[in-house]
Specification:
Length: about 220
């Protein structure tokens, strides 16, 4: 592993530690969730907001599925003009899919519940930290990491696929991943569906999955 990849790996480790310390241990998760919680009503007022629930959640999700299908089409379509992009498209399509699947599998196995299920925000479940033991009433779980945010952060697959030979396009994909991922995550934080750290763990995982996949493609192309 070269020096640049080692630095990137160290950066991933540092980012994970920072998310845990700042958002969980320092309490930023609770303060951000509290900003959207109406204590007098005992609920998140934006939970059922149509603009957030339909265009912001469902609409964005399907838009990004269409984007992924376009990348898959570029990888498989036998068109001569797409030949120069075929390798990158294959890596991007696989990386985007693996990132989304990894987030979904971890979320489905998670015992951590969403803010709107917690006793502090009108629910009944007990809140517990990332490395804390399971409480008596963990609630329904299935909330960490944030699956909806993966619709944007999956674009890290496109960034990694492009960054060796098409640097400008790669940085556009990198910016789009953060912009769409954070926007999708902000929608869910405002609705009470996730803590901010859930969104950032999704970004971390999507990046880590594509970092590992890029290493596989790099070795395959050089060996």
């Amino acid at each position: 592993m070269n020096r640049e990849r080692l630095l990137e790996l160290a950066g991933l480790a540092a980012a994970g530690l920072l998310i845990w310390l700042v958002f969980e241990r320092a309490g930023l998760d609770g303060r951000l969730a509290g900003a959207f919680f109406d204590r007098s009503r005992g609920e998140f007022p934006l939970r059922h907001n149509w603009w957030l629930a339909v265009p912001g959640h469902t609409g964005l999700k399907y838009a990004m599925v269409l984007a992924w299908l376009a990348v898959v089409a570029a990888a498989l379509a036998p068109l001569e003009r797409l030949r120069p992009w075929r390798r990158e498209a294959r890596q991007a399509a696989l990386g985007m899919a693996l990132a989304a699947v990894a987030v979904l599998l971890l979320r489905n196995a998670s015992a951590h519940s969403c803010p709107w299920d917690l006793a502090a925000y009108g629910g009944t479940a007990e809140h517990f930290g990332l490395f804390a033991p399971l409480p008596e009433r963990p609630g329904p779980g299935r909330c960490l990491p944030a699956a909806h945010a993966s619709s944007g952060f999956a674009l890290f697959g496109l960034y990694f696929a492009l960054r060796r030979f098409r640097e400008r396009a790669a940085w556009i994909a990198f910016g789009a991943a953060w912009l769409i991922g954070l926007a999708a995550g902000a929608v869910q934080v405002a609705r009470g569906a996730h803590f901010a750290s859930h969104v950032l763990w999704t970004a971390w995982l999507a990046y880590a999955v594509n970092f590992a996949l890029d290493r596989v493609f790099d070795r395959a192309s050089s060996g």
